[in-house]
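Note on ligand handling. Small-molecule inputs were canonicalized before submission; formal charges were left as drawn, and no protonation-state enumeration was performed. Where a ligand contained multiple stereocentres, the stereochemistry in the source SMILES was retained. For pyridoxal-5'-phosphate, this procedure yielded the string shown in the input block below.
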Amino acid sequence: MIPFNKPFLSGREMEYIQKSISMGKISGNGFYTQKCQQFFEENYHFAQCLLTTSCTDALEMSAILVQIQPGDEVIVPSFTFVSTANAFVLRGAKIIFADSQPHHPNIDPEEIIKLVSPRTKAIIVVHYSGVACPMDEIMEIAKQHNLLVIEDAAHAIDSYYKNKPLGGIGHFASFSFHETKNIISGEGGMLVVNDARFTNRSEIIWEKGTNRTAFFKGEVNKYNWVDIGSSFLPSELTSAFLFAQLENLKKIQTKRKILWLKYFDRLKDLSENGIFDLPSLPSYATNNGHLFYMVCQSSEIRDSLIRYLRQDNIYATFHYLPLHLSPFYKQIHGARKLPRSEYFSDRIIRLPFYYELSDDDQNQIIEKIHLFYNQNRKG
Ligand SMILES: *Cc1c(COP(=O)(O)O)cnc(C)c1O
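Structure output:
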């Protein structure tokens, strides 16, 4: 059996968890939480990093920081995970869904321009499969209309836009360490705050609406309830696990990029016949080996390829369903069409992709895809 995903343990996770237990502090914001945050601040020069229990939580924090009021509009790609939109709906925002680019699932800045209104508060971008959105254009639109930009960087660890690390460009960014991502802690995430106007308030919201962080830094002599907030901190057990992974970031990224390139190189000849598309990489973006997808010619072919691989116990899968057509939001969204979001949703297949995917298994997957298309061509 070749699963779609398999969580990778880098080796010292248990050791660090034990160490955190023996240090006598296993709640949040202790030794390992700070080690992880420093890792990102030092390696990517993010201004402020706060570990959270998930990327969803980091997005919810950013929605609070943006001070969404009921009726405010937030522009969100339709082709994304529910949390990208849900975090803002929870604060009363109306989601204005934007379409993908013609040849890439990422949000199209041309579409964003058409959707900005006097009620717009923020633009959320998702760097799909770790490939950067055109951030210069998006930041320029935001500047012209006085909007805040949040990068949903759940896929985008260690990936770049014009040599700038993703997560360091928007006013805020959120990362995920869910077990399906490159670097994992079971559940886990991180909020990045790049705009110093929000630094103090982000710590308060993180600590249940109290100024507890300022208290620990010795800035106030008691801590009190000063704002809204929630319990967004992960426990030290989670952070200890995460730190063991971060120490192996280079090794994990190197391996994942090798796997990605092998799929790409070995499927290229087939795709040149135009029977499917391989991921395109704009010149301003890097590939971080987050996931590997192909774009089939139709949903029927995509589904039959999934079934075909499944017969050999190879678990490939589809990806996002368009959020503007979801049972929860289609009424509110109305009839406005987003054909590219639907196009990618119908046609994308993601292949098994994980650190320990063996050479033999990957060869078998590639061979089966060749067989599938050769049989289909014969009719
Ligand atoms: C995984 C993912 C999330 C949610 O991450 P969690 O850590 O599970 O909350 C949000 N957005 C995108 C684009 C994702 O892929």
